[in-house]
Amino acid sequence: MSVQDSTFHGFANPVDPSPTELRAWAYHPDSVPLASMPPDWDLLVAGDHLVLTLFDLAMDPACPARRFALHCLYIYAADGIRTNFRAHPKRRFRKLVEQAEREGDELMRNWAHNSRVLLARQDLFVYHDWCEGGLVRENRRIG
Q1: Could you say which of 15, 58, 110, 115 has the lowest number of CB atoms within 10 Å?
Q2: What domain of life is recorded for the organism (predicted)?
């Protein structure tokens, strides 16, 4: 049985979910609504521990929580770039951007493009776009 076929029954610790829990939730997001999560849950999960899982979920057009995962990738990218990669490894970030460019659909290619633009021009950072989901909702390219 795959994660997508199973039912998700909740997080052991929603402040620090495991990759397996996050993946299971992402395919059954109505089982634990975002509104019931801790405040700023998107900021909590948008770190190195879960970034590969978030990336996989964002790459899957069939994932019901895909847009949430993509939103977290925008937070991850902005956090890494704006801290000069003290917050996240630059090498991992670059690999994700390159993979999104090669294998991603329009949503993921836009994330990769926007990430590269922000890397070159940090003055284009707008909190609403990068950390509050603006670029995900509008699916637009900056720069």
Answers
A1: 15
A2: Bacteria
**CA neighbor of 3 nearest in space, from 28, 29, 40:** 28
Cα atoms in the Cβ-side hemisphere of radius 13 Å centred on 136: 18
Output the six-digit token pair for 127. Answer: 């909190």
Instruction: Inform me whether the pLDDT recorded for 38 exceeds 80.
Output: yes
CA dist 115 and 137 (Å) reads 16
Read off the tokens for 104.
């991603």
Return phi, psi of residue 71, to 5°. -55, -45
Distances (CA, A) of 16 to 51, 69, 87, 127: 13, 15, 17, 24
| pTM as predicted | 0.93
Token look-up 């670029």 returns 135
Give the 3-state secondary structure of residue 111. helix
- Helix (H/G/I), strand (E/B), else coil: 125: coil
Distance CA 55, CA 97 (A): 10
